[in-house]
């Protein structure tokens, strides 16, 4: 792990983390008078398990990954933010992103005062290994990839990704927020053999839990330990841990909703394809479609005037004229189709 240690901010490598009252004894005594809580039971009077052992054990089983390789965050956005803070020295270090991509990488870089370099995707929205390597220099700490990519929905070519993980001298983060919708299984199988790889995933999308804010990062135990050291002690609250466990045990609902979203995506794509105003529908392994219109701004406003909010991605690289449309319920999709047909 020497080559990874070198990438971590030195002051954090030696950081003595906050020792929360419950890290050691969570749930393992009769009387807890150690954390200045209110003793009167109301289901939420106690601090949550800071290491989320029960939830991690469920996720470990689902994903086939050891609990020591799992970090849980307040949404995967928190995981991404902590990854920035673990590796990048503010005002000095930089990261590489591959536009068009998820907007938070740049925002988090700006918040943390980290420079951003860009290595654009091809017109087929694939990475170019050489142009990423060309952007690399000594201050580059992290490369952010997103697969399936937002805002397009395509998955990155596996061979290219493995190639860049092997050649990139910094950390490679692959954001797999939409992986549950994909026909491919993503890159989770690589975390134990590629020491510089971190994968992020979320329960906000396919699992339908955006409201409780629960995201994951997967990596080797060394990196996961380092992220855990710098996280807020009780970042996953009691209600989130409880509801997540309930939902994760209800696989039937998950599968039913997932099947609906997949078939609705096909239906929506087929209907949009018949419309003259639609110029192109991009291949998507996610729960949205990037759609090129003959006049995106006009249709954005037209839909808004009819009570439908889509995302205008026209100003993003390679996305001129495009709106990003999330797959809704069958009724919502029918309504959108009907209004567009008018
Ligand atoms: N990554 C991507 C690519 C996303 O699109 C999103 C949400 N829009 C996130 C991460 C953040 O998800 P979370 O709700 O887990 O913070």
From TrEMBL:
This enzyme's EC code(s): 2.6.1.9
Pfam families for this protein: Aminotran_1_2
Top-level class of the enzyme under EC nomenclature: transferase
Keywords: Amino-acid biosynthesis, Aminotransferase, Histidine biosynthesis, Pyridoxal phosphate, Transferase
Catalyzed chemical reaction(s): L-histidinol phosphate + 2-oxoglutarate = 3-(imidazol-4-yl)-2-oxopropyl phosphate + L-glutamate
Coiled-coil zones: none
Signal peptide: none
Cofactor(s) listed in the protein's UniProt record: pyridoxal 5'-phosphate
Biological processes annotated in GO: L-histidine biosynthetic process
Keyword Transferase applies: yes
Modified residues (N6-(pyridoxal phosphate)lysine): 205
Gene3D superfamilies reported in the protein's UniProt record: Aspartate Aminotransferase, domain 1 (3.90.1150.10), Type I PLP-dependent aspartate aminotransferase-like (Major domain) (3.40.640.10)
InterPro entries documented for this protein: Aminotrans_II_pyridoxalP_BS, Aminotransferase_I/II_large, HisP_aminotrans, PyrdxlP-dep_Trfase, PyrdxlP-dep_Trfase_major, PyrdxlP-dep_Trfase_small
CDD domains: AAT_like
Pathway entry: Amino-acid biosynthesis; L-histidine biosynthesis; L-histidine from 5-phospho-alpha-D-ribose 1-diphosphate: step 7/9; Lipid metabolism
Keyword Transferase carried by entry: yes
Every Aminotransferase class I/classII large domain range: 42-339
GO molecular function: histidinol-phosphate transaminase activity; pyridoxal phosphate binding
Matching SUPFAM superfamilies: PLP-dependent transferases
Assembly, per entry: Homodimer.
Family the entry assigns: Belongs to the class-II pyridoxal-phosphate-dependent aminotransferase family. Histidinol-phosphate aminotransferase subfamily.
Protein name: Histidinol-phosphate aminotransferase
Provenance organism: Portibacter lacus
Gene that this sequence comes from: hisC_2
